[in-house]
């Protein structure tokens, strides 16, 4: 005989393309202490309503696909246990500040453009020949960027950032953290090439250091701190351009 | 030729009262507001110092106005006393929250060892209190007012 489980109410945001605004739909879902919010959404999709749309993939906090606002707070739903967000109705909405495509799926085009703008890869003025061997780094050099390299592009920091909510042209926390990650990498020489995106009017200087991006980050990347350090690094880079001849930069 | 279908998206708008939705948002807004009080207080003190040094006289509707005498009168009013207390509270709040943020912006490392943020915060508070006491001793010789 099937075990009768207690239930929990899920209030889920629904939106169909073309509708004026989203509405809410409530579902009753079985509750177990080891269930996460994503399990509950998958239960709804499989047993109650196959039209409910949301993104997910790895179910282990790596892919960064399942970010949503749960009870108003941006989280990875695969890491949020029902027991930790339990209340009369658990509210599930799409990630804040992003255009909604359908139900809980948001448009990530803007974020992808920003990622591209900061050139998140190693840039060399001139590559060493293969015969010269690999680019070696000390542990200290790796430690300088390790934290920022843990970003999984889940965009939770954008949903937590009121500056991005106010002005979507702001570069934003994750893209800035990635720019920082490469700028402080001893193998990289591309800080100057990232400068137009980082130090522009919509770059890091828009950040007022609310700090909620770092609090919300599920990977402890601390993008808020990365942005503040980028402000310092980009100021130094600009001063170098003004004061030093190109051969000394 | 293939055409790209563009679907309508719902664009959410941030509430103008966003800072009330979260304790940390509110703490941030309070820190920003604190800057306003500190700026007004600093401007008033700067004007007072300028007036004390140069004794400027400005034309007024009922004759000339001695800026220094006006400032001296203002500083003695109960309203300014209350404003000073509020500014002091905001200055303390602003300083403490900034000391808390400082090690995030500039992590301090000694021979590869990262000094814990709490230690940096404690050190800055100790330095702040020490400098304030030193200033007090210089100005008032350590006597109670």
What's the SSE blueprint?
The complex is a heterodimer of chains A (249) and B (145).
Chain A: E1 7-14, E2 23-30, H1 37-48, E3 67-70, E4 73-76, H2 82-85, E5 89-93, E6 100-102, E7 105-106, H3 109-117, H4 139-146, H5 156-160, H6 162-166, H7 173-183, H8 191-198, H9 212-216, H10 223-243
Parallel strand pairs in A: 1-5
Antiparallel strand pairs in A: 1-2, 3-4, 3-5, 6-7
Helix pairs in contact in A: 3-7, 7-10, 8-10
Chain B: H1 23-54, E1 57-60, E2 63-66, H2 67-76, H3 78-105, E3 109-110, E4 113-114, H4 117-140
Antiparallel strand pairs in B: 1-2, 3-4
Helix pairs in contact in B: 1-2, 1-3, 3-4
Written description of the protein model:
- The complex is a heterodimer of chains A (249) and B (145).
- Chain A is an alpha+beta fold and 249 residues long.
- Chain A folds into two domains: 100 residues, Roll (Ubiquitin-like (UB roll)), CATH 3.10.20.30; 135 residues, Alpha-helical ferredoxin (Fumarate Reductase Iron-sulfur Protein, Chain B, domain 2, Orthogonal Bundle).
- Helix content of chain A is 35%, strand content 14%.
- A five-stranded mixed β-sheet of chain A has the order 2-1-5-3-4. Chain A has a two-stranded antiparallel ribbon with strand order 6-7.
- In chain A, a hairpin with a 2-residue loop joins strand 3 and strand 4.
- In chain A, helix 3 packs parallel to helix 7, helix 7 packs across helix 10 and helix 8 packs across helix 10.
- Chain A starts with 6 loop residues before the first strand and ends in a 6-residue tail after the last helix.
- In chain A, 39% of the residues are buried.
- The model of chain A has no long low-confidence stretch (mean pLDDT 94).
- Chain B is mainly alpha-helical.
- Chain B has two domains: 73 residues; 39 residues, no CATH class.
- Helices cover 65% and strands 8% of the residues of chain B.
- Chain B is built from four helices and four strands, in the order H-E-E-H-H-E-E-H.
- In chain B, a hairpin with a 2-residue loop joins strand 3 and strand 4.
- The longest helix of chain B is centred in the N-terminal third of the chain and has 32 residues.
- Chain B is flat.
- At the A-B interface, helix 6, helix 9 and helix 10 of A face helix 1 and helix 3 of B.
């Amino acid at each position: 005989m099937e075990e009768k489980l207690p239930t929990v109410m899920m209030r889920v945001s629904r939106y169909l393309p073309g509708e004026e605004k989203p509405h809410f739909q409530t579902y009753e879902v079985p509750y177990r202490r080891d269930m996460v919010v994503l399990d509950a959404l998958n239960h709804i999709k499989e047993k109650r309503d196959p039209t409910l749309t949301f993104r997910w993939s790895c179910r282990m906090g790596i892919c960064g696909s399942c970010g949503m606002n749960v009870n108003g707070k941006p989280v990875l739903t695969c890491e949020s246990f029902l027991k930790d967000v339990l209340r009369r109705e658990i509210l599930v909405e799409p990630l804040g500040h992003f255009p909604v495509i359908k139900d809980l799926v948001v448009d990530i085009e803007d974020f992808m453009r920003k990622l591209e703008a900061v050139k998140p890869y190693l840039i060399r003025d001139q590559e060493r020949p293969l015969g010269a061997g690999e680019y070696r780094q000390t542990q200290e050099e790796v430690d300088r960027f390790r934290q920022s390299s843990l970003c999984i592009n889940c965009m939770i920091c954008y949903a937590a950032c009121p500056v991005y909510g106010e002005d979507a042209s702001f570069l934003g926390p994750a893209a800035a953290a990635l720019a920082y990650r490469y700028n402080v990498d001893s193998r990289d020489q591309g800080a100057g090439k990232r400068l137009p995106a980082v130090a522009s009017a919509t770059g890091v200087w828009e950040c007022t250091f609310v700090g909620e991006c770092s609090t919300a980050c599920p990977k402890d990347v601390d993008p808020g701190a990365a942005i503040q350090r980028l402000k310092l690094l980009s100021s130094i880079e600009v001063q170098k351009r003004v004061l030093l001849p190109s051969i000394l930069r | 030729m293939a055409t790209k279908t563009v679907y309508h998206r719902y664009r959410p708008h941030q509430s103008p009262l966003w800072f009330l939705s979260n304790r940390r948002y509110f703490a941030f807004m309070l820190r920003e507001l604190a800057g306003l009080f500190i700026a007004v207080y600093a401007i008033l003190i700067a004007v007072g110092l300028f007036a004390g040094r140069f004794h400027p006289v400005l034309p007024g509707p009922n004759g000339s106005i001695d800026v220094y005498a006006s400032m001296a009168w203002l500083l003695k009013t109960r309203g300014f006393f209350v404003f000073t207390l509020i500014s002091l509270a905001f200055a303390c709040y602003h300083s403490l929250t900034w000391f808390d943020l400082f090690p995030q912006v500039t992590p301090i490392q000694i021979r590869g060892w990262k000094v814990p943020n709490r230690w940096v915060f404690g050190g800055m508070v100790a330095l702040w209190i020490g400098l304030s006491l030193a200033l007090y001793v210089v100005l008032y010789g350590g006597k109670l007012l």
